[in-house]
Each structure stands twice: as C-alpha cells, then as structure tokens.
Amino acid sequence: MIVEPKVREYICTTAHPTGCEENVRRQIKYVEEQGIIDGPKKVLVIGSSTGYGLASRITAAFGCKADTLGVMFEREAAGKRTATPGWYNTKAFEKFAQEEGLYAKSINGDAFSSAIKEQVIDVIRKDLGQVDLVIYSLAAPRRTTADGTVYNSVLKTTGETFTNKSLDLRKNEVTEKSIDPATAEELEATIKVMGGEDWKDWIAALKNAGVLADGAITVAYSYIGPKLTYPIYSDGTIGQAKKHLHKTAVEMNQEFEGVKAYISVNKALVTQASAAIPIVPLYFAILYKVMKEQGTHEGCIQQISRLFHTKLFVPEVSTDDEYKIRMDDWELEDKVQNEVMKIWEKVNTENVEELTDIEGYWEDFYHMFGFHFDNIDYSLDVEV
Ligand code: NAI
Prior knowledge:
By secondary structure, the chain is α/β, with parallel strands linked by helices. The protein is about 40% helix and about 15% strand.
C-alpha cells in the first residue's frame, strides 16, 4: 500500500518501511565513516529499536564488529495498520548486519518482565556464551512488576505548578503551558518505571546466570539539561527517576564484582520519548538552531559514535563520582546556553520560524517514522 504520515501532535501513527530502512542505512554509513573501534564483541542492547538504543546497536555492530542481541517493545503491522518504526528499523538492522556476517537477533517483548529476561539469558547462553557490553536504553510509559502492579510514569514537576512557553506542535504556535506537581504516588511510580531498579535487576540476572563476561561494561542513558528546563525535567518526576538511576550506577559498581556501570548523560534530541515532554520541544527547536549555527549539532548516531570512540572505549574512562560520562558537554557550553536563553526570551508565534530550527525539529520527527527522505519515492506501493 501507499504509506503516508498521519501526525497527531507529538506522534505519527504510521511508519514507512523503506524510509525506516533508509534511516538505518544512513546511520550505518555514518558509523562506518568514523572507523573501527577497539570495543566490545558481544553486546546486549535493551531498548534497541529506536533513538539512542538503535544508535548504540548500530555503533556496536558496524563500529566494533560486534554480535548484537536487541530487546524492544514494538508492534507488527496488522491489516492496514503499519508496524511501528522500531519494528521496521529492527528488520532493516538485522538485514544489514547479516549481510556483514554479523550475528543479530532481536527479542520483541516487555523488558521489565522476568520472562523476557529469562529468554534473553537462554539466547545468550546458546548463541553468544557471554556478553561484554549491556546498553540500557529503555524509555517506557509504564512497568508491570512481578506481583502484577502497574506503575505509570508521569511528566510533572515535584514542586509548584510550573508555567512557561511551549510549542503547540499541531499549529507550530508558541503558547503557554502549565505543568502541575505530581502526587507522591505519581513520583514513586515514575521512579519505578524510569529509575534504576530494572537496570539493576537485568545486570543481577545476567551475572547470576553466568552470561556476563568478567570486566563487562553496562551503560544506562540519562539527561540533565540546562536550568531552563530544570522545573520540568531535572527537578521534575523524570529527573528524580534519573537521579535514582545515577545512584544505582554507584550501587552496582560497589556490589557487582567484575562489572563496570556507567551513566552516559546524553544530549537532548527528538525521539518518540522526548517529543512527548511538554515545554521541551521548544527548547529543542532553539537548541538545534544554536548548535547547528555553531557547528556542534549532533544526532543520536553522532552522540553514540563519539561516546564509543572518545569516552567509553579509551584507556581511562573519565567520569564524576556517580560514574557519569558527559555527552551533553557541547549542549551545556555557555556559548550555547547563553544564546538559547536570548532566543527563549524573544520567541513567539510570529518569529518562531526565524528564531528557531522548527524545520529541523520536524525533519528529525518525520525521519523517525521513515518519512521525508529525499531519495525515497513515497508514491510507490510498499509491502508493510
Ligand atoms: P525511544 O523512545 O526512541 O526508545 C525507547 C526504546 O525502548 C525503544 O527501543 C522501545 O522499543 C524500547 N521499549 C520501551 N518500552 C519497552 C519495554 N517495556 N520493553 C522493551 N523495550 C521497551 O527513546 P530515547 O529517547 O532513545 O530514550 C532512550 C534513553 O535515552 C532513555 O533512558 C532516555 O531518558 C535517554 N535519553 C534521551 C534523550 C533524548 O533527548 N531523547 C536525552 C538523554 C537521554
């Protein structure tokens, strides 16, 4: 069928198979251009199908020539409904990896569940023996724990109601948005979903099963961001969950012998997860403008390739006392943030196209779903 984008605010309900393949192909090309990394050889990526996790899988496979096992939660096509982009990305990735003679298997299911953890352990045991790198890149709205309790994460403040400018993505208008404080239960639920508990469960399960190589590295992704977004991000519910994640890295380094746990604090980028956070998309559009002008803009693949090449697989990994590696170094430079703040003060609906890179925001958005690639003929029928 002919597949067209159907955009509803911050989500697109269709995905283009050929376009998703193109997205993966371009990321592989970038990684190959950066040269070989003397890095891991057997890699597990939890949250491997889109965004930072997909970029990590591609960097491991095509930068380190590693065998990869991916875990994701994606939907297959059904009738006239296309699959999710992560499903197409994974098919494309597996095809390209196999062409290169690289092992690539993927498990589609709920990473929070013990059933999926057991399945992953079985596959590692059978196919890989052990893994030497585990990337934890889940961004999930909810988690069901072993006792059947469902925790829903929320994007709220933890103090007062916070009001600031925001981008209405339906009309590209600059409006005001107020975000309410979370209740104690909502905060606790967000920490359950996006904090470090499940990461630690994964590493403990892998270690106890003997499928984690001695000296294995595990990295989870986090975000901090500038003061501007502190009330909604860093000091908000999601930021509290990230603080829990950071503490978990410290705990794991103390408790798990032979495992090194790091946090990579990454740059703000348009992904399915981040597009849903209020206020943040306007910050993204301004940030893109400033960083592109200053020549320091990166996408997920550039971030993760730089992480592997210059910060993680180097003789001495440089971190703070919470094992944090700062990949947000360029985003948080004064010359970037001062410029962002100047634009933030001035931006309104009339000047949003001129002062921000809203076009770049939307390009990234469409590319995530396989649309707007100039070398794809979208008028052709495709098998979904
Ligand atoms: P994303 O939405 O592109 O990717 C999420 C991944 O998690 C997908 O592969 C999805 O299939 C998988 N997933 C979700 N629920 C699952 C479940 N129950 N079981 C198995 N897999 C599941 O998100 P993005 O942005 O790449 O986020 C990944 C990590 O990076 C998150 O921890 C996020 O906080 C962090 N991060 C994101 C930044 C951004 O600006 N996008 C900035 C810095 C960190």
